[in-house]
Amino acid sequence: MDTVVYSSHFEAVWEKEHERKSQWGHRVFSIALILGYPALSVLYYLNNHPNVIELFQLVGSASLCFSVILTWHFFYGLSSQKLAFYNYLILIVFHSAILATIPHQAYERACFNMTICLIFYCLVIRWPIRKAIQCSVLVLIFFPVALYRLSPHALALFMREGGVFFFLAQCAFPFIVWQRYSNEKRAFYYQHSLREQNDLLEKQVAIAEQATRAKTDFLSMMSHEIRTPLNGIVGVVHLMLKEKLQSDFQKELIQTLQFSSNHLMAVVNDILDFNKINSNHVKLDHKPFDPVLLLENLKKTFLPKSRDKNLDLVFEVRNKLPYRLISDEGRLHQIITNLIHNAIKFTESGVVVLSVREISRSEQIIRLQFEVTDTGIGIPFDQQSTIFDLFTQGGNQGTKKNEGTGLGLTITKELLRLFGSEIRLKSIPEKGTEFSFDIDFEFTDLVEVEAPMSLPVQPGQYADAKVLVVDDNTTNILLATTFLKKKDIVADTAANGKEAFEKFLSRPYDLILMDLRMPVMNGFEATKLIREHGSDIPVIAVTASSFEDEKERAMSNGFSDYLVKPFLPSDFYNMVFAHLDKKAKSVEI
């Protein structure tokens, strides 16, 4: 018996599926009876059998009954299982009548033919076991009774000339049918269960994808809503630091505000970085870079912080590094920055060491090991397995003094996954911590001819340039136009894309700074209209969204560059000057 417990829902589904699969076999069985039984009488006629008339009457009546049942099936909805079952019952009745009325001199050929027919029935009939048992029981009762009614000698002769094997085969018939039926039902059950599980998984995946999209859309919106005013704060603080303040107290207040805004910007960037990595929106940008220069810049960045805490900051390069590594310098910088920042933050005395050494090298690939060690407070043993989890800080590190988002190590781990690497941790509480990882880099030792350094911007150098600033946020308008005026660059403003396009048509500009999300007409639509007008004026997308797909969308829709808010003045000027210089060179040519 089946050990599988089938639900009522599955039984209903199986009945439909079984009917569909067995339909043609049962029809073939019925059609074979309609055509095969008249052929039986023809054989008797060719052999000059004396009872051919009686045989023809019985066979004709049976074929008529078979045809009526088949018509019922095709035109009145009788199931194929019942079609085959009723025809089998009719076959038993009429064949029993033939055995009871038509004498045979020998039954050897008849037994052989009936056994062959039974094998055919096993191949085409698909029944539950109860129908097969009912038919076999009727055969085992009706056939011997019919033969005995003809004469006891006929029954004995039938048994001697193959009847025993036929009846044994008839006994096996239900088990063969049951075995096929059970196997098919069990196979369909597993397929049906797997299909249901796949459907459930697809629904769950769809729900997860929908939730991910909703999360991404939410964070994208919040990114815009938070980073837009934050851009104003960062920019205004920078401008105020450039002004002559009346007292040291005012300068201290502005510096405190700058520290807080920078910290807030770091928190927002961490959250968005983590979301971008989880949403697969981060891809490594493989470009050549100077590893020595990278390490020098990192050391210059952290020297003031280490000196403030009286810590020794040591950078060790144990092997000569290649002239150029080919990878994502920015993401490598972010990984090392997170680790050194943590090391300095959680170390009160002693030393913080960054060690870089070569592990192996081939003609094209070099494997480097990076280690960041400190003599800080360490991480408790019971928390080392969770230190890379989201929003987690190790034990006594989560104090007010050392508070933070807890995202730094999580982001570091995920970024290293993009590099095909894993981070390793060794830590002893109150003695120190070591983080290490290995990365394979493509490299080259070919010395490139360095481009000449650009000269500093001279007062009035861009006095003839005309820039259009498009943004619906008045603070950002004020900030951008103030930055431009400090370099003697004329700036017009527009509050939305429609107004920007109208101003573009009314006067020529050398550059357009275009926000993406605005009322009336957004930046994408306005830029599309400008490009359709045949203009190649540089249009820089200035947006609070740092998602890679939005950047790709902007660059594929006619924008010339992409500047993310909040931005530092140096980033703003570098991008503006680069496009104004490019525009000036194209005009000269």
UniProtKB/TrEMBL annotation:
SMART domains: HATPase_c, HisKA, REC
Substrates-to-products reaction catalysed: ATP + protein L-histidine = ADP + protein N-phospho-L-histidine
Residues recorded with modification 4-aspartylphosphate: D515
EC number(s) reported in the record: 2.7.13.3
Domain of life: Bacteria
Pfam families to which the protein is assigned, alphabetical: HATPase_c, HisKA, Response_reg
Membrane-spanning segments: 28-46, 58-76, 83-100, 106-125, 132-151
Response regulatory domain ranges (all copies): 466-580
Keyword Membrane: yes
Domain spans labelled Histidine kinase: 221-443
CDD domains: HATPase_EvgS-ArcB-TorS-like (cd16922), HisKA (cd00082), REC_hyHK_CKI1_RcsC-like (cd17546)
Keywords, comma-separated and alphabetical: Membrane, Phosphoprotein, Transmembrane, Transmembrane helix, Two-component regulatory system
Name of protein: histidine kinase
